[in-house]
């Protein structure tokens, strides 16, 4: 498969290694030093594009891939406010889009358990739910896309929670008070952490933690390449649940 890598930073480079190991060819790599190569003509030479760039560049990259009719796998986070518009456009124009806030199998298993646990906790109002995400200091968005997906899983299944609140705990501010129907997501930034997410249920007598810790970026990168292989000849909008069998 011929792959275009839109975003050739930490994730783009990790994806390149996995793609080559799986027998694919990288026909285009884009970062902020060669944007002149980011053309519809170049994109149309790829069977699929894998997009891990920045929250401020992802939408124009999706637009270019749609114009080139190149299926696109999007891992970039921090753009989901625009998701409904992009989905609508993809469906009406017959394009192919695969998106996920987290491509790792371990996190997707965690997403599933999180929903089951939230449903169980309806019967136990003495537990308060809270969330924490820890990432490297270069991360541009907060809370992480994964934390938002976890919060959505709680909100869909735990009747006493209706929304989430974001707290970037960088030492300059106090823990905010949040309404009782809100899940607080605490975002911490620490040197070189690939991504750690914890959903906690805390009562006055004990605490239950559901925690996923990525040791490196291989899980994210492998998931993105497998998603690209899966997407290649499809049209429509897909995510990990469509590809995984649980
Ligand atoms: N869904 C998932 O499983 C994962 C998602 N991510 C997300 O992927 C994104 C990228 O993460 P990293 O690789 O760690 O960031 P990074 O900062 O290391 O790399 C971003 C790259 O995008 C490039 N870039 C800037 N403008 C561009 C443009 N117009 N078109 C294409 N590339 C452009 C930059 O030069 C840089 O090379 C972030 O939004 C992050 O949250 C990261 C890991 C896993
Ligand atoms: O920026 C990152 O690094 C990561 N971003 C994704 C997110 O926002 O959830 C996925 C992973 O946690 C790493």
Could you describe the 3D structure shown?
The chain is of the alpha/beta class. It folds into 2 domains: 2-103 and 218-243, Rossmann fold (3-Layer(aba) Sandwich); 105-213, Dihydrodipicolinate Reductase, domain 2, CATH 3.30.360.10. 35% of the residues lie in helices and 25% in strands. The protein is built from 8 helices and 11 strands. The protein has helices at residues 10-21, 40-43, 58-68, 83-93, 105-120, 145-157, 218-231, 240-243; strands at 2-6, 25-30, 48-51, 72-74, 96-99, 128-135, 163-168, 182-189, 196-202, 207-213, 236-238. The strands form 2 sheets. A 6-stranded parallel sheet has the order 2-1-3-4-5-11, with helices on both faces. It has a 5-stranded mixed sheet with strand order 7-8-6-9-10, with helices on one face. It is elongated. It starts with a strand and ends with a helix. The model has no long low-confidence stretch (mean pLDDT 98). Bound molecules: 1,4-dihydronicotinamide adenine dinucleotide (NAI) and the ligand O=C(O)C1=N[C@H](C(=O)O)C[C@H](O)C1.
Low-confidence stretches: none
CATH homology superfamily name of the largest domain: NAD(P)-binding Rossmann-like Domain
Principal-axis shape equals elongated
> How far apart, in Å, are the first and last alpha carbons?
27 Å
Query: Ligands in the structure?
Result: 1,4-dihydronicotinamide adenine dinucleotide, the ligand O=C(O)C1=N[C@H](C(=O)O)C[C@H](O)C1
How much strand content do the residues show? 15-25%
CATH topological fold name of the largest domain: Rossmann fold
Number of domains: 2
Q: Main beta sheet, described?
A: 6 strands, parallel
Rg is 19 Å
Query: Mean pLDDT score, rounded?
Result: 98
Please provide the count of β strands. Answer: 11
The SSE string, one letter per element, is EHEHEHEHEHEHEEEEHEH
Mind telling me the CATH class of the largest domain?
Alpha Beta
